[in-house]
Amino acid sequence: MTHALHRLLLLLLLGLAAASCLAETVDPARSRIGYGPVPSWVEQPEWPDGAEVPAASGLRYLLVDDQWNAALPSPVSYRRLVVEIADRAGLEDGGRFSVGFQPDFHTVTLHAIRLRRDGRWLDRTQATRIDILRTEDDADVGILDGWRTASLLIPDVRVGDVVDLAYSVSGTNPVFGELRSAAFSAAYSQGAAMRLVRALGPAATPLQWRVTGPIEYAMTASVSGGVEARRFVARPMPAVESEDGAPEGFDGYGAIAFSNARDWGEVVRWARPLFDDGERGPRYAEELAAVRAGEGEDAILHRALEIAQRDVRYVSLSIGRSSHAPASPEATLERRFGDCKDKSRLLVSLLRDAGVAAEPVFVDTVKRGRIGERLPGPSAFDHVIVRARVDGEWHYVDPTRNVEVGGSADRAPAAFGSGLPVGDGVADLVPIPEAAPGQDEVQVEQVVERAPAKAVDPDDAPHLDIEVASTYRRDEANRVRARFAAGSADDVGRDYLDYMRGMYRDIRSTEAPGFIDEAARNLVRVTERYRAPMQPEGGGGTGHEFNLRLFQIADWLPDSSLPERRWPLAIEGPRGGSQEIRMTLKGGWDIEPEREVIENAAFRFEREVDAEGDTLRVRGRWQRLADEIAPEDYAAVRTDLERVDALLDYSIVTGAEAMAAATVFWRDLVWVVFALVLAGGSLAALFATRAMGLLGPLMFAPSAAGTALRERPRLALGLLPFLASGVLLLLFERLPAHLAGIESEALPWWTALPVDLGLWLAGAVASWIALRVLRVQVPWQPVIAAAFWSSLPLLLFFGVGLVAFGPALPLLADAVVDGPAVVRVSMQVFGIAFVLTGLVWYLVVLIASTARAAGCGVGQVIGAFVLSSPVLLLLTAAAVAAGWTEA
């Protein structure tokens, strides 16, 4: 019995220990979730079948219902969702829902979780799995809010089911006192058969309300038992398609909002006790002494701001009352961390005690200047900054920023648009001025130098050395300074190189970026150096065309790809910035100075192009005059943006000789016209003599010419068009690069010409041998003569093609010819057309004349050419391997 009793006691102790451990691991927030009936004040509407509402992601929303009761001692928010699982894709989300709550002051009540299947309702309330998640989405930036998410997982959900979920969240943050406010989305990216929003408040002090957004709601109001109820219904609620590029604070979906605050002054009266003087202590006294040592109000402001920014790291414990009630100045200095409200209260106290008037200012980092679109209430804001009166003017500063340097004019403004100062006599929002910068916030200077190829080093191809020197001020300086502080110069250099590769193919960095921080002026300088082949992105040639792009300004242009907009378009980037590109070229530049200005209510852009001596200068300046473009102004501004984008690129030819060739005779089409006349006259003369001699028949009756060659080969005379054609082909190969100023490492022409002609002759001999193999008994003289004389079409049309190209011949070396596009295109099209015509005509004449000269059929000649082609390829490969010719 004794041993059995001991074992029983041991099991009992182990059970108690296990229960204790289990109790410690259960999240106490779980106790804030319960079950209960739908409150009596809730209206339960009948929803439509939703047949006209398209499903999205496998779900069709039949009812989205939000009801809020602010007439109760503790407000209650009720929500009901009725969703049809339309197809398999909807199973992933149709049986899983989330409910957010703050366990310090919220209670969640689940009213109903049920499924309609085959006309019957199945209760899933108790069977639904509930998991409590603490996500803390902003923990990585030092913000902890204590919110939980109740994840509801409904079992056995099938395609075709209708899910009906209803719950309510009771309670409010005690820090708000008697102030009540709520806002509900007026639209979503997915439509619903019915959207209902209903709010209840005391009839004696009715709630303020506001509806925004594109959806029209029918509103009705009623009063019963001293409670006023307002009902807003959209049936159906269409889906709203978002548009990229909208300002961050713009809400294109809209909201239905309620508040019991009469005006912004009531919010000020609520907030003032939270930001009273608070506890002072020895740490505070020590810091205050340092602040008071400043000479003048501006110096006092900077010293106090430095303490808040440097000595107090940013950590936000926004749980319960701490979400809006700041810690005392002494507590903040004691723990050396705090969020915006803690830092602002500390800064305001230091300034006031040092004799400088100061007030906290509520702002919103998302809505910014649009904060007035919201109803008055504490929840309208998400940030606190400070304003201090220095030399008679209010200066707005943000104590949560990294330590700011430089004087007041050098620092970035607190650009929040508008805010609510917590001070005496304040009853409304005030604009927060943003002084225009005295200098451009970003200045980029780019120097481009052309380095030609060197014959002594085959690997040293033509390239461009590029140096980019950027100067950043104000907020741009803070941004770049933080970027270099977060990583090494090599890390930043890799990011910069990735960016440059988007413009210049095969570009590489020659050294890590240089970084100079002139903190006294809040100015940062960054230097980058690159080397790039002389070809623009996507170029496939030798790269002697180069595109100079004002890339920094391109980064600031908003995306205007949509033909029209329903939402405004944000314009981001600095208020003012510029980029200047300088490129040197030996021999100077043949260009006319240009100046283009594009200006509207949103921005001003100016581009200047000029040259002095050997230096070309392309300069662009951008000024942002507004934060956004209204939809009604978008079409006109979009046209201006397209003009700006076109002016950001300036294409040039990087060879002096090519520049000279590019500017001669481009103003007319005389070269093309002369080529056409020359070709027409030559062909007419040859056609007129097609029945006599040898030249006319070669062009228009090659079979007859072949017969004549069989009887009398005339080899010596035929050598002349053969040699002339070889010279002409060599000109087509070498002349474009020469005119483009490209230093070539090809073999001298006196070496290349005999090799090319020799290979051509070897091909003709191989064809004769192939004919003999095919049992065509013909002496070699007629076949070789036919090969010589058949080059006449090449001689004629390649010669005319050279004339048609004229000064546009550098195009064949991938250089660019300046001038009207129609002239350049015409020269190129006609020149290539003549060359292609010559090649086709040559093949026709060669085959026909060879067949008649050999006394065989055309098929046998083609077969002989096919048999002999491997021999010609082997001979060519051998010549390349021996260095006698180029591949």
Protein described:
The protein is of the alpha+beta class and 887 residues long. The chain is 34% helix and 26% strand. The chain has 21 helices and 36 strands. Strands 1, 2, 3, 5, 6, 10, 12, 14 and 15 form a nine-stranded mixed beta sheet that branches. Strands 27-28-26-25-31-34-33-32 form an eight-stranded mixed beta sheet. Strands 22-21-20-23-24 form a five-stranded antiparallel beta sheet. Helix 6 crosses helix 7, helix 15 packs across helix 20 and helix 16 packs across helix 17. The longest helix has 34 residues. It is elongated.
Q: Any key phrases for this structure?
A:
887 residues, alpha+beta, nine-stranded mixed sheet
- Total E-strand runs: 36
Helical amount: 25-40%
How many angstroms does the end-to-end distance come to? 104 Å
Largest sheet: 9 strands, mixed
Structural class: alpha+beta
Give a short summary of the structure.
By secondary structure, this protein is α+β, with helices and mostly antiparallel strands.
Topology diagram in text:
Elements: H1 2-25, E1 33-35, E2 59-69, E3 76-85, H2 91-94, E4 96-101, E5 107-117, E6 120-123, E7 129-133, E8 143-144, E9 148-153, E10 162-170, E11 181-185, E12 195-202, E13 208-211, E14 218-224, E15 227-234, E16 255-259, H3 264-271, H4 282-292, H5 297-311, E17 313-314, E18 316-317, H6 329-335, E19 337-338, H7 340-353, E20 358-363, E21 383-390, E22 393-397, E23 418-421, E24 430-431, E25 442-451, E26 463-473, H8 474-486, H9 489-501, E27 508-518, E28 523-533, E29 545-549, H10 551-556, E30 569-570, E31 576-584, E32 594-599, E33 603-612, E34 615-624, E35 628-629, H11 634-647, E36 649-653, H12 656-662, H13 670-688, H14 695-700, H15 702-711, H16 715-739, H17 749-773, H18 780-789, H19 792-805, H20 821-854, H21 858-881
Parallel strand pairs: 1-5, 2-12, 8-18, 17-19, 25-31
Antiparallel strand pairs: 2-3, 3-10, 4-9, 5-6, 5-10, 7-9, 11-16, 12-15, 13-16, 14-15, 20-21, 20-23, 21-22, 23-24, 25-26, 26-28, 27-28, 29-36, 30-35, 31-34, 32-33, 33-34
